[in-house]
Amino acid sequence: MSTQVSPICPPKWVWLLAGFAIGMFTSFLIFLKMAPLEVAQIQPSNENTAAKLVTAAPLFEDLLPASEKTPNKPTQYILQVGSFRDQQQADGLKTYLESLDISAKIEKIGIWYQVQVGPFTKMEQVNKTQDLLSENNIDVILQEQ
Questions:
Q1: How far apart are CA 93 and CA 101, in angstroms?
Q2: Is the pTM of this model over 0.85?
């Protein structure tokens, strides 16, 4: 009995390449499901172009005339004390912080649950809270708003 390949059947390397392509496509679909994209929607408005520029990109305020700049807001500070994919872990840290008399909030950003303390307007408040957190072995990231 001879092993002869049918002329209709493609070569083995074609099957290997097709299996690899199907596997990569499946992996890509799983990746898209795990990390959803957030799309910002821009609503049309009747504001002038300078006002849109200020609300869309505050970095360009220096380019605007002084009459069109937004008034300076006081700087606010937030301490990020944790970031988790699991909401139960974030709730656990929040409960622990409340046992230390530190009010915290959880903000969901994408797939992350960020545990934040603040906002603070004075650096003295930030330093006091930061010292209390470091005494309890909690690392923080200072964020300005």
A1: 13
A2: no
